[in-house]
Structure formats: structure tokens, C-alpha cells
Amino acid sequence: MKMIRAIVRPEAADKVTEALAQDGHYSLTKINVFGRGKQKGLTIGTIHYDEFPKIMIMMVVEDESVEEIVKIIKYKSYTGNYGDGKIFISSVDAVYTVRTGEDGL
Ligand SMILES: Nc1ncnc2c1ncn2[C@@H]1O[C@H](COP(=O)(O)OP(=O)(O)OP(=O)(O)O)[C@@H](O)[C@H]1O
Ligand SMILES: [Mg+2]
């Protein structure tokens, strides 16, 4: 199993999650976050914005779904401008469902 953490523009988040749902990927956690990337924020005139609001979409999925999910996230969150987002993938050792006590997704 893998954990996907995609940090996207707030205005892209619904497009991403709707497309993921259409492809059968429903389970997710969404978190409002603030962050910055390589540009260390953005200066407009005399004002420097250190961090920008983003939405982090977190999903734990089977390994074989990762490629498809990443493709959808990239496609739906792309504008071509700085700050479109970042996708991080990591391994997940264990998952438990509280209701059933079972392990696995
Ligand atoms: N290395 C990182 N570690 C943790 N979070 C990051 C990292 N890079 C970016 N982020 C998060 O992702 C958000 C979007 O990053 P962003 O798209 O600006 O990445 P970037 O690498 O600067 O790419 P670009 O050059 O296209 O702007 C940031 O606001 C921050 O929340
Ligand atoms: Mg950036």
C-alpha cells in the first residue's frame, strides 16, 4: 500500500476529487494547509506572501492504483503556473479498519 499526499490549489481540489471518484477512488482525507515551494513565496509590489493556502489530499491505496491516481491528480490540477502543486508518495506498513478490526484496505 502507498500513501499519496497531493498538495494542490484550493480551486483545483474539487476537480481532482470528483475525477478520482469517477474512476472509483473514493476514500480520502482532505486537509487545509499553508505552504511554499521553490519560489519561497511570492512578492507582489512591496508585499511578500510567505505562504499560500493549499489543500492536501491524502489517500492510502493499493500499489497498482498509484499510477492512475497520480495521472488524474496531475491532469486536474495543472495550470502551468508556479504553485500548481506537489505529489508525494510513500509506503504504508499497515492499515486497520476500526469497525471490523481487519487489517488492509
Ligand atoms: N519539498 C516540499 N516539501 C513539502 N511541501 C512542499 C514541498 N514543495 C512544495 N510543497 C508544498 O506544495 C505546495 C505547492 O508547491 P509548488 O507547486 O509551489 O512547488 P514547486 O516545487 O515550487 O513547483 P513550481 O516551480 O511549479 O511552483 C507548497 O505551497 C507547499 O505546501
Ligand atoms: Mg512554487
Level-1 CATH class name: Alpha Beta
State the end-to-end CA separation: 8 Å
Radius of gyration computed on alpha carbons: 16 Å
Number of strand segments: 6
Q: Helix amount, in percent?
A: 10-25%
Average predicted confidence as pLDDT = 96
How is the largest sheet built, in terms of strand order?
A: 2-5-1-6
Q: Number of folding domains?
A: 1
CATH topology description: Alpha-Beta Plaits
Order of helices and strands: EHEEEEHE
From the spread of the alpha carbons, the general shape counts as: elongated
Bound molecules: adenosine-5'-triphosphate, magnesium ion
Using the 3D structure, state the CATH architecture.
2-Layer Sandwich
Largest sheet: 4 strands, antiparallel
Structure, described:
The chain is an alpha+beta fold. The protein has one domain (2-91): Alpha-Beta Plaits (2-Layer Sandwich). Helix content is 24%, strand content 35%. It has two helices and six strands. The chain has helices at residues 10-22, 66-77, and strands at residues 2-8, 29-35, 42-44, 47-49, 52-61, 85-91. The protein has a four-stranded antiparallel β-sheet. It has a two-stranded antiparallel ribbon with strand order 3-4. Strand 3 and strand 4 form a beta hairpin. Helix 1 packs across helix 2. The chain is elongated. The N and C termini lie close together (8 Å). The structure holds adenosine-5'-triphosphate and magnesium ion. Magnesium ion (MG) binds next to loops.
